[in-house]
């Protein structure tokens, strides 16, 4: 069987578990061949299908995300390593990066709270040579992924990574003050209906935040002022129906807020300023 034939067969198999079955099969084939997807489509469809491809398809058929199978994903033009210790960065979160690049000065210091793969911070640093940053996470495994991504992108000298948990007393001690704070906190309702590839595979600690999905905002937002320089902004990702509730939490902590929408016109980020 050729690679092209194997892709068609795999797409039929994966149609039961994925709305992007053909695309998933192409990414898996490119990974099995050790080439880029574009190169695979241009040059390798007539190659023999590699023996390991079938096992990759089986993993995807069990709802394992493609990014965890291949070990990488794309975010804001960067190729990032991901593992089950980190959330898979979504295109929706690029809204926060775009807002940060619009609002931030040419130089500054950024903090990424709950950094995971490091996606938000690294995207900012990659596009602002005068910036340096700190990423924190409660997971040592996630921090290892973020630090590895920083090294692979040549951004390690301008970044630092620390094990911190904003639910623990004194977590912000020694971090200093920042011009920009980025955060994609847990904000999914505990009983929310999620796709199996999310609920069964991505880290629950980075997803769920109580019955309303607001628990982490309530803990984190009142603690932000001590980390912010005068005129600094904090940009938080929110769920589509949470803008008013999170804005109210921010107002009670002394912040004004501005809403940013994603490319699908859904509420996606709140920009907070004291």
In short:
The chain is of the alpha/beta class and 274 residues long. 36% of the residues lie in helices and 21% in strands. The protein has helices at 3-14, 21-33, 37-44, 53-61, 66-70, 94-103, 119-127, 140-152, 196-199, 215-220, 243-252, and strands at residues 72-75, 78-81, 107-113, 130-137, 159-163, 178-183, 228-237, 256-261, 267-273.
Write the layout of secondary structure elements.
Blueprint: H1 3-14, H2 21-33, H3 37-44, H4 53-61, H5 66-70, E1 72-75, E2 78-81, H6 94-103, E3 107-113, H7 119-127, E4 130-137, H8 140-152, E5 159-163, E6 178-183, H9 196-199, H10 215-220, E7 228-237, H11 243-252, E8 256-261, E9 267-273
Parallel strand pairs: 3-4, 3-6, 4-5, 6-7
Antiparallel strand pairs: 1-2, 7-9, 8-9
Helix pairs in contact: 1-2, 1-4, 2-3, 2-4, 6-7
Tell me about this structure.
With 274 residues, the chain is an alpha/beta fold. Helices cover 36% and strands 21% of the residues. It is built from eleven helices and nine strands. A seven-stranded mixed β-sheet has the order 5-4-3-6-7-9-8, with helices on both faces. The protein has a two-stranded antiparallel ribbon with strand order 1-2. A hairpin with a 2-residue loop joins strand 1 and strand 2 (78-81). The chain starts with a helix and ends with a strand.
Identify the notable features of this structure and list them briefly.
alpha/beta, 274 residues, single chain, 7-stranded mixed beta sheet
